[in-house]
TrEMBL record:
All copies of domain Inner membrane component, residue ranges: 5-56, 71-120
Protein name (Swiss-Prot/TrEMBL): Uncharacterized membrane protein YccF, DUF307 family
Transmembrane segments: 20-44, 64-82, 88-108
Cross-referenced Pfam families: YccF
Chloroplast recorded as keyword: no
Keywords noted in UniProt: Membrane, Transmembrane, Transmembrane helix
Lineage of the organism: Bacteria, Bacillati, Actinomycetota, Actinomycetes, Micromonosporales
A GO cellular-component term linked to this record: plasma membrane
């Protein structure tokens, strides 16, 4: 019940809806450009994760290979570093107030996903 409440509050007040829209639009651009479809899939994964982050975590896929590692380097140089920086800055701003601390921590939880999204999957936490 607490996870649902935190996710609902995150969706409205913690920028979950805005993040999901942004990652979704980035995914659409990647799908249109065809060559960047794997990045679009990663952006959709980030959109879903940023929509409901409480009760979920990011784990590495055991079958991720060298191609996902190389694509992650491209992602890091093109988009990952500024996405991670924006999550860090938003997390700091949200942690200023006591009410915003859970939302700030959720933003900090999204930093590794924004930096290195390929070869990972979102799973439910027990």
């Amino acid at each position: 019940m607490i996870r649902f409440l935190l996710n609902a509050l995150w969706f409205v007040f913690g920028s979950g809806f805005v993040l999901a829209i942004g990652y979704g639009l980035a995914a659409l651009v990647c799908f249109v450009l065809i060559v960047t479809i794997p990045f679009g899939v990663a952006a959709l994964r980030l959109a879903r994760y940023s929509l409901w982050p409480f009760g979920r975590t990011l784990v590495e896929k055991p079958d991720a290979g060298l191609a996902s590692g190389a694509a992650n380097i491209v992602w890091l140089l093109v988009a990952g570093w500024w996405l991670a920086l924006s999550h860090i800055l938003a997390g700091i701003a949200q942690c200023v107030s006591i009410v915003g601390i859970p939302f700030g921590l959720a933003n900090f939880k999204l930093v590794p996903a924004a930096l290195w999204p390929l070869g990972r999957e979102v799973v439910e936490t027990p």
